[in-house]
Amino acid sequence: MESQLFSLYILPEHLWGEKTAQAAIDFTNDTMVGSGPFKLAEYRQNQFVRLDTNQDYYGSVPKVDGAILQTYGNQDALVQALKTGEVDMITEMPNTAVAALRNDANIQLVVGAPLDPGVTDIIFNLVPPDQCPPDGKCTGHPALKDLTVRKALAHATDKQQLIDIVLLGLGTPGLTLIPDGLGVYYNNTLQDYAFDIATANKLLDDAGYKDVNGDGVRETPDGKAPLSFRLNWAGDMSSGPRIAELLSKTWGEIGIKVEMQGLDPDTLTSVCCPAFDYDIIIWGWGSDPDPAFLLSVMTTDEIPTGTSESGYSNPEYDELFAQQAVETDKEKRKELIWEMQAIALRDLPYIIPYYGQNVQAFRKDRFQGWITDSSKIALEDPSSLSLIEPVK
Amino acid sequence: MESSHPGGLTATMRNFSRNRMGMVGLAMLLLAIALAVFAPVIAPYDPAKPPRATIMDIYLPPSAEHPFGTDDAGQDVLTNFLYGARVSLMVGFFASFIAVAIGGVMGLSAGFIGGRTDNILMRFTDIMLVIPDLPLAVVIVALTKPSLWVIVLVIGLLGWTSTARLIRSQTLSVKQRRFVTRARAVGAGNFYIIRRHILPLVLPLLVVNTVLVISLAILNESTLSFLGLGDPTAPSWGQMLNFAFTRGAMSAGGWWALLAPGIGIVWVVLACTLIGQGLEQVLNPRLASHNLSSTKQMILRPPRTQSQHAPQAPDQA
Amino acid sequence: MRNRRLINKVAWALFTICFVIVLNFFLFRILPGDPARAGIRDPRLTAEAQQAIRVRFGLDKPVINCFASINPPKPADCFVNPLDTQFFIYVGNLFRGEFGISYHSNQPVAQVLAERTWNTLLLIGVAQFLAIILGVALGVIAAWKLGTPVDYSALIFSLVAWSLPTFWLGIILLFWGSTNLGLPIGGMVTPGMNYASIWAQVIDVGRHMFLPTLTYTIVFLGEYMLIMRSSLIDVLSEDYVLTAKAKGLNSYQILKAHALRNAMLPMVTIIALNLGFTVAGAVQIETVFSWPGLGGAIYEAVGQRDYPMLQGAFLLLAVSVIVANLVADLLYTYLDPRVQLE
Fold this sequence. Notes:
The structure holds three protein chains of three kinds.
Chain A: H1 2-6, H2 13-16, H3 21-26, E1 38-44, E2 48-53, E3 66-70, H4 75-84, E4 89-90, H5 98-102, E5 107-114, E6 118-124, H6 147-155, H7 159-167, E7 171-173, H8 197-206, E8 228-234, H9 240-252, E9 257-263, H10 265-272, E10 280-286, H11 292-296, H12 315-326, H13 330-347, E11 350-356, E12 358-363, E13 367-368, E14 376-377, H14 382-385, E15 389-390
Parallel strand pairs in A: 5-14, 8-9, 8-10
Antiparallel strand pairs in A: 1-2, 2-3, 4-12, 5-12, 6-10, 6-11, 7-11, 13-15
Chain B: H1 9-16, H2 20-37, H3 39-42, H4 77-113, H5 115-130, H6 133-143, H7 148-158, H8 161-175, H9 178-185, H10 190-229, H11 237-246, H12 255-283, H13 303-308, H14 313-316
Helix pairs in contact in B: 1-12, 2-4, 2-12, 4-5, 4-7, 4-8, 4-10, 4-11, 4-12, 5-8, 6-7, 6-10, 7-10, 8-10, 9-10, 10-11, 10-12, 11-12
Chain C: H1 2-30, H2 35-40, H3 47-56, E1 67-70, E2 73-75, H4 86-95, H5 109-144, H6 149-163, H7 166-180, H8 198-236, H9 239-246, H10 251-273, H11 275-288, H12 294-304, H13 307-335
Helix pairs in contact in C: 1-13, 5-6, 5-8, 6-8, 7-8, 7-11, 8-10, 10-13, 11-12, 12-13
């Protein structure tokens, strides 16, 4: 149940006990109340947040006087700011800068799985007609509901190239929605679909997807619809256009065409789910420390709620999900969860290109004492900020 | 037929060929077009089937293998630059075609018909003139589906005002000339007068304007693409700059990924500006020198302003 | 006659503003992307919560009589009170100086815009001032030295400057300046600084302003130079310059006494009318340099689908361009004796 607690917050009852839902919506949180080691001193939207040290903190009082979290308009500027010493630490940076920063004597890079491991996913619209939600459009391409086509796409997805190009190598190939950052819950025994254009082509040939009219794009076995899919991604993903472009090239080699378009997250949500008005979407999830939520994403129950993005429906999987929710034995629950991952990889409601790693960096000549040895990195976390002290 | 008029298209062309600045611009533009047309021949790689790039190929500096270096995806910058020229030039040409067609028709009808039509059309033009183009384009492109044709359409639909004003005043002045009034007196129809007398004299100006609108359209497209509003399936120069800027070209030291497309844009815009200047001088040779100068010299006029912000007072009265 | 002309011009400007208000309101409702949906953000909210958000942003009312919504159009009840429709509430709020509430920050749009506007004005003001001074100086020199290498160099510089994409020049200068001159990379002030004196603060803002101002100045300099040059050549071709020459005045005296004042005339109009382009430049420069101004606000609001912010910023821009046009027009009438009467 840790997963549920992870996103539940404690609220003071004397303030909130009597309030209605309307009041919660109107609440703008102008005067912040908290109990942490830092206090908010000044906030300018899209510019910076200035934190002062809370001298009355009940734990160990931070050794620094405060911290300023500054916003930059682009990531290149961020790296430049660290190089010139305008900032002491950065929590987000383009992976392209890694090589340059590695050679800088004053800068320490920290690479690893982040506190909330992220998953980048390629979602297929699989919603069965009888499961189409009441307000759904369910316009998915019929060919994608054929596992053979999805398998061919998986074989034609060059995960290592995506990691190399998009993440500059700072990631690991993905299997299912459960990232390797989740430790024991991650099923590391599964065998992925190897990148192999010939196998992919053979799968499609054998299943009767032939290029009848010779335009380089295969048609469905009945010869009616070309294998041309809409491919959308969330416009706020800076990697979106590159992933889409690389996919379109390798998928193009097996006679599958995609119409690429980035959509802003709101529009994407409205075509995605529960409307199911798409073919393929590139998007992502942040993970809780417990896999329960990400596993629920593939259950039949979540199709009408909009949490299920693919519309995947498999009673066997649903049953396992119900079992793991009530299983109290940790080892047995792990077994159930591993089995669910095996099913997910077999049925491919998603292709997971990779699990990304985070890169953060700090200046060695300013502050020392950052927590860098933990498996989960977050230099901006108060746990780190309250330990650091100026370099003498 | 058209050449019978002094200042017609053929005469203009002949004089233009003697204009140094204009010819330099034309040569620059032709070179850019040639590069775009022969991209498949010149480009070292096929952008649709590039060699499989790995982490070792990212932001490689210029070398024999990659004369312009590689970009954030390990792709050859020269190849993308050449194919990007196709997209950028195409947007420039199509968008300016739309703009000039609308502006030309508006200006011609306002100037020729006059009266209430003129008043309404020009009032509408005035309104469009004061609406800030770029923010409006950003909003429209962002809220519709980002495709090349939407971008072409938006740039075209927002860029016709200067043409309309210019063509209107030219039409007004031609209309008053004696041969037009004579033609009317002998019973020539409106369509005949426009085709036979007005158009030949308006056409050179329309060409000047087209060239200048092309440069504006290319600048606008690159700006929209740079702001992340380009068509991902048609990588233009602006799109290349967007990728380089958002995917850390500078922090990786990959200045070459920014340089090539930027210079491409400057090159084409400068070429169009020079051509426009050259044509302008040919059409308006009155100001060849002034009373304080000892040399005979052609005059350059600011490209954007003369057409777009012609002081309104005199012909509005 | 002059008064009538003045009244005409002002009335026309007011009409244009009304047109922009209407366009501004309906544009965001005709285009795909529903403001109601963008305001709600998460479609998984309960129906009551969605309705509460609609009420908060005033999206529960019909857009205008007979249309419950425009996208897709649904001719609904035509007999609602027109004053109780989104359009008239919007117009009414505008008159009270209210631009609505930002979807993204939950702050009043007017308040956010006001702060942003000052930042942009500071940047544009300084840069335009520099561009005008330098552009005019360069233009005068070039026109005076017509046909010489000085003229050619100035001309080529101006043409290239004019052809530069603003954002590209910005990126190049950003990395040159931050690497070689140690200038800040973005923002307007060093955050969290406690300034020893007002001068320390001015210097800090100045350091942040240097690169964006430089970019801006170069981009506009070229245009001003070209205008000034051709305008001065124009004036110098007039007969009275010849007369003055015949009277024995030297070139410098002629420039000072006659030509410059007249040649400045078109500059006045053009500087004021340039506001539209200035804004386009602001969007680019503020994006590159993370400058917290109006242009950056538009760019952010587009990404966040923050319709009230977009609407507010757009209206503000359009109205300033209209007003600048009006001022330029009137100024021109006032300055140029030839354009007095109808």
